[in-house]
Amino acid sequence: MEARQGQFKGAHVDRIASLKEFLVQQPDDSFLQHALALEYIKLGDDASARALFEQILARDPGYVGSYYHLAKLLERNNDVPAALAWYEKGMTVARQAGEERAYNEMRSAHEELSF
What we know:
Helices cover 85% and strands 0% of the residues.
């Protein structure tokens, strides 16, 4: 079991290294930053993931997927007011972009968290 966990962690570390290399060439690429944030979450590094999601949304507020993942991260860390706020912002942006599936996912998560 421990060997499997090491392999699992090693694969994420390799992906993180690859993503960081790509980001050297394209430092403002929201897709690459989002992918890196998801890898950090898999490793349990919520602080690094949160910082990346917040950077993405500050620079590229139309990057809809990051709202959901940032809100979920905050929810998992028991920061309910912040999670609700990010879901609300994400729902607004998703609706404006015509991304109904993303809107519905965030609305559902928001409703579940607020009741």
